[in-house]
Amino acid sequence: MGLLPDETGYAQTLDIQPIKDRFHYRRENIVSILCWGAPIWSLPRWRIQNLWFYKEGRSIQSNLTSVELCAGAGGQALGLEQAGYTHEALVEIDRHSRDTLAMNRPSWNVLQGDQADLLEFDGRPYVGIDLLAGGLPCPPFSVAGKQLGHADERNLFPATLRVIDEIKPQAIMIENVRGFLDAVFADYRQKLKRQLSKLGYKTDWHLFNASDFGVPQLRPRVVIVAIRRDRAEHFTWPTSSAANPKKVGETLFDLMRENGWKGATKWRDAADDIAPTVVGGSKKHGGPDLGPTRAKRAWAMLGVDGMGIANEAPTRDFVGMPRLTVRMVARLQGFPDHWQFAGCKTPAYRQVGNAFPPPVAEAVARKIREALSVRRSIQVVA
């Protein structure tokens, strides 16, 4: 095994002087530091800056790394950030969504040009990142999208498998609609599991409801997690949070009364349940609204007009059922109020409506982080 080069100079070169200072290690106690069978100094700079360092039973860990596919407005990316991941790249074909990501997180590497298209994206520069995540298009597996599965041109699982093979991440996290678990896709699911197994991963999926993680909305979502076999035994699915989600009225009361609406208090008291599933629609759909007829009826039970999206909160003397604004729907999706959405009302609402609620993404990502962290030690041989 090779000896570590001059540790002081090397730590300064890699901007990891604080790690050295924290551990106060002595040169004579270190024979070598190895990671994945390679000397630490032979690894890429970003990889070294995201390692676990152990000395005398103490440890420090900076963020794990991720690449995000079909990043949309950043719901999943925001959840991953909150779970302690650093995004090496975000791939998103929609211009408005890319603008949203760049506007909220100027430091994120939001890819442009050909690399913004998953079908063209080259994952090889990101070999070995910790987590490859993505919210792949839902229409191939949704009832509204005709459930064409592999025959749907919007099915991006084949492209994702190619990227997985290129990047070889430690773990994979993919979000999709509940329809993915329908019996009609049983063969497709097993084929996906076999393909991932050939690439070295153990795969499982789980149906979550966003309301179980504090999101004030009935939003079922399937999450597929695949982890390299040598680390998979450490992964467990997150359980629901103890706190019940707020009701729609309580969640949106301050936004509803922004313009002094006199009926806001009465509306709050009547909107005493969580929201039905927010539907974002697609570019083939017309203007923004809160979904099909059945969904609109559910919104009406909460005192909300689901026929469209409002530009602003009700005025002081408004009479009738109010419509939600984009900001209100974003709060129902679990986005923080400071998160802005690029574009006019229609593209902004579609970004919000199609998002993966950040609190759910965060909960799953934290469990993946725990599984990877068990194996992310660098052995120091004295």
Architecture overview:
- By secondary structure, the chain is α/β, with parallel strands linked by helices.
- The chain contains 13 helices and 10 strands.
- It is 31% helix and 14% strand.
- Strand 5 (64-69), helix 4 (75-82) and strand 6 form a beta-alpha-beta unit.
- Helix 4 packs across helix 13, helix 8 (248-256) packs antiparallel against helix 9 and helix 8 (248-256) packs antiparallel against helix 11.
- The two termini are 13 Å apart.
- The model is unreliable at 1-61 and 139-154 (pLDDT under 50).
Element layout with pairings:
Layout: H1 7-13, H2 17-23, E1 34-35, E2 38-39, H3 45-48, E3 52-55, E4 58-61, E5 64-69, H4 75-82, E6 85-91, H5 95-104, E7 131-135, H6 157-167, E8 171-176, H7 186-198, E9 201-209, E10 220-228, H8 248-256, H9 264-270, H10 293-301, H11 326-332, H12 345-353, H13 358-374
Parallel strand pairs: 5-6, 5-7, 7-8
Antiparallel strand pairs: 1-2, 3-4, 8-10, 9-10
Helix pairs in contact: 4-13, 8-9, 8-11
